[in-house]
Each structure stands twice: as C-alpha cells, then as structure tokens.
Amino acid sequence: MMIDYLRQLYQETMSHPEVWLKPAIFICAIFIVGGLTWWIFNAVMGHVRRRLENRPTFEKNLQLFNLLKKTGHYGIVILVGAWLLDFFQAEVVERIFFALMIVLIASIVNSVLKTFLPILKQSIAAKTKTGVDDVLIELAMNFSSVIIYAVAVILALDTLGLNITPFLAGASVAGIAIGFAAKDTLSNLIAGVLLIIDRPFEMGDRIEVWTAPKNSATWGDVVDIGIRATKIRTTDNIVVVIPNNEIMKRDIINYTTMTSEIRVRIPIGIAYDADIGMAKNIIAAVSLELDWVMKAPPPKIVVRTFGESSVNLEARVWISNPRRRMDTISHITDRVKTEFDAAGIEIPYPKRDITIKNADAGSN
Question: Is 262-343 a domain of CATH 3.30.70.100?
C-alpha cells in the first residue's frame, strides 16, 4: 500500500515539473546563499582574529571572537529560516520557528552578558575604590540568566498563542509566597546593597562590634562586605559574621573612616587634698611617652566632676593610629598609677566613717 502510494505520488510529481521545480530552485538558492554567507563570515572572522588577537584587549578575552562567531551564525540561521517561512506561508510552523528564535536570541543575550560582565569587573570595577559596582556586577552575573530565560519563555509561549495569564498569576503567587518565606534573607540582601551604596565603612575599617562574645574584644576590622552579611575580625582574632539587616538597624561607630587621627578619653580620679596641677602635669608627661600620641594638639587634662570621694579628671589625648586606642588607655592608666604613687598623689576609693555609740555610756 505504502509503496503504491509513493509510486503514484512520484508519477504525479514528475508529470507536472512546473509545480515543484520553481520552489525547489528557490529553496536550493536560499540554502546556497546561506552556505556562502556562512563561509564568507567565517573567513572574515578568521582574518579579523589574526589581525587583533595579539592586541592586549583581545589577547586576554579571546572568547569575544567565539561570541561574535556564534552571534553571526545564529543570525544567518534566523535569516534563512525567515526566508523559508515567508516562502511556505505556514502559520503554525512560523509560530514555532519564531518561538525558538526568541529562545535563541535569549541565549545570545545571555552569552553577551556572561562575556562582558567579567571584563567589566576586571577592567573597571576592580580599579574603583567603591564596592558598589562590584556588587552590582556580581548580582547581574548571578541572576541575569534566570531573568533572561524566564522572559524568553514567557514571550515564546505568547508567540505560540498559549494563554500565559494563568502562568503569570501562578508565578506572582509563588513569588509572594517565596518572599514571605525568605523575608529575612531578602531583607539582608537589600540591606547589603544599601550598605555598600551608603558606605558607612570600607574594607579594613575598624568599627565597634556590639554582638561580640562575652569577655572578648568589642571592636575589629572589616574583612568582608557581602550581600547577606558582613564579616568583622576582632582584635582577639575572632571573626564575627553580622547580618546586614542588623547592621543597618544600629549606630555604626567607625574609627578610621574619615582620618587616622582620633581622640582618646581616659578618666582618672584623685583625692580632694591632692595637688591637681601636679596630677595634670604627670598625666600629660606619661601620655607623651607613647610614640603614637600626638604632640599637636597636645594632651589635655580637665576636671570633669567632683565625686563622692574623688576629683574626677579626664585625660584627652590625640593618637595617630586608631588601632592603638586600647594600648593607649592601658599604658597611661598603668603608668599614671606608678607615677602617682611615687609623687604621693592618692587615687581614692570609696570610704565610710562609722561611729559607734554606746547607749549605756551616759548612765555611768
């Protein structure tokens, strides 16, 4: 049966060559033109590559040539397919073809981004002081493929004539559900972007750490600013990972953001009968023993308050290295105690005078 049908179809076709000869010639011409275009394009790209591959820009990014060749080949396929569809006038095939072309174009766009984003990161973002461009490029590299292909699939389905409204509604509901489920993560991501844009601190800055473990250092250096969290290495060499959302909620104390010079305040109490002038001179002299204590402006010692058992002084010294803050406080406090003892200046402590009255003494 099948053989008879094919034989009959062949006889009818050969008996009317004018029906199929012209279309066959046109189709062959399309493929010949496409093949020639493909060959010429490859020859031109090979010549361009030999001329430019030794230049610095292209030497480190030879994938640019592969991307250009891929884009050119896809373009030739699209043109050949469009000519064939225009000739056959097949609506269903045309819809399928253009749906596939949308996905193909999405692949080209994704390849372009995957090629140029690392180049931008190496040539531009790495040379800037701010971390904003690094984060934005990193986000684009991580999420661009998902966004491009999602949009391509939606457009392809619409081209095929499928109703995408339920799909979009379902995606919206799923997006809301995922948003509620991952609200903390999303909050940290948004806070991380805002943190890098606002730049309250940079890599290497020394800041206060309010979530440090008990009985450990409460400040440290910023070692990493991520999208979700920030890592701070304290002076005890402990790395504290703080979610960005928590950082944005609190006051950030940065010791190194504006300048390396900061003022340190050290409270010191002396007895009421001590020589205040001598105490101030001793404190100033002890402060200047440190190399990082600045002589201009000079150390300043002031009377803050009068306590219950002491005159409360405060030493205010400028240091050139904020990372020596605790060293400054420790050294001055230790040396002042030694010098006060040698000079006879008392560092008081709370005292109470207790008077015992004998009730029977008056009757004797």
Answer: yes
Cα dihedral angle (170, 175, 177, 179), rounded to 10 degrees?
A: -170
Residue 212 main-chain phi, psi, to 5 deg: -70, 150
CB 319 within 8 A of CB 328: yes
Helix, strand, coil shares of the chain as percentages rounded to 5? 60, 15, 25
Q: What's the DSSP call for residue 98?
A: H
Domain 201-249: which topology? SH3 type barrels. (2.30.30)
Position 127 pLDDT exceeds 80? no
How do residues 332-350 score in pLDDT, each as one tens digit? 999 999 999 999 998 887 7
Query: What residues does 230 pair with on adjacent strands?
Result: 225, 242
CB 239 within 8 A of CB 225: no
Residue 265 pairs in a beta bridge with 316
Cis preceding linkage at 297, omega within 30: yes
